[in-house]
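Before a colleague's protein record goes any further, I have to sign it off. Thanks in advance; the entry in question is below:
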Amino acid sequence: MMMTSRPPTRRGAGDCVTASFAADGLWQWLEAHQALLGWLFVLSLCSLVLTLLLLPVLVVRLPADHLVATHHEPGPGAVWLRWLVRLGKNALGLVFVLAGLAMLLLPGQGLLTILIGLLLVDFPGKRALTLRLVRRPAIRAFLDRMRKKHGKPPFLLE
């Protein structure tokens, strides 16, 4: 009995062929950008370590009513120094937000890193977005445990 092989059947406009080309193209891109992927991995690890070091400091130093709507008047001091501190705080916050977004795909605490960045950056709607993240049960429990460990009361929410 003689068996003949049939040519592969097409399921449409080259579905199998297109998927194969896409996978090959992705693999070629990954091989061509190994240095970039290495740097992204190092950046992800560094931001993870930075998050682990700075998160307790930032969370514990914030007052319990930080998330309640209040407006703080700036104290006396040099205007240029306040602007410099504000610029540095916003730049650091932006780095944390971008690192957190990357950590959603790479190893690390993405949502917590984004939360740290949001606490540092000044922008319209910041408070609402921060409250939305803090109200997540897992994040709220984590922050409350961290504050309790250092003898601080939990954050007050409206």
Observations:
- The radius of gyration is 24 Å.
- Residues 47-69+77-149 form one domain.
- The CA atoms of residues 56 and 89 lie 17 Å apart.
- The chain has a mean pLDDT of 78.
